[in-house]
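Local shape tokens

___
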Amino acid sequence: MVDRCNCLPACSSISYDVETTQTTLDLEKFMRVNHVYDRSDNFYITTIAIYFKESYFITSKRSELYGWVDFLANCGGLLGLFMGVSILSLLEICYFIAIRPFSVRSRITSVEKRDTNEVQNVMLPVIIKSE
């Protein structure tokens, strides 16, 4: 019945190995030991003995392999491994987004000032007097 219900297995369970054996009963010996002397034709004897096959049992407990924190840590580690993301990479990205444009702008303005100074120096008239 359990196999047909498509149920998930229990988180904790105990299962026993089952083994059945049978043998014939020596009726005459049984009657002598138990002091039964009256035997009629409708006399049926059945004995059942139930024993544990092993004197110990193994319990198993099911639990999650990865918790939420373990899953996030593994994903972050794999992302860092495959994408090469590290703290230095993040700092470089911040540098190129925030600091680099300002340094490029200041460099361009200094180059423009130098060029205008050179142009002004070149255009100065030179007057030479001859004596």
The mean pLDDT is 76.
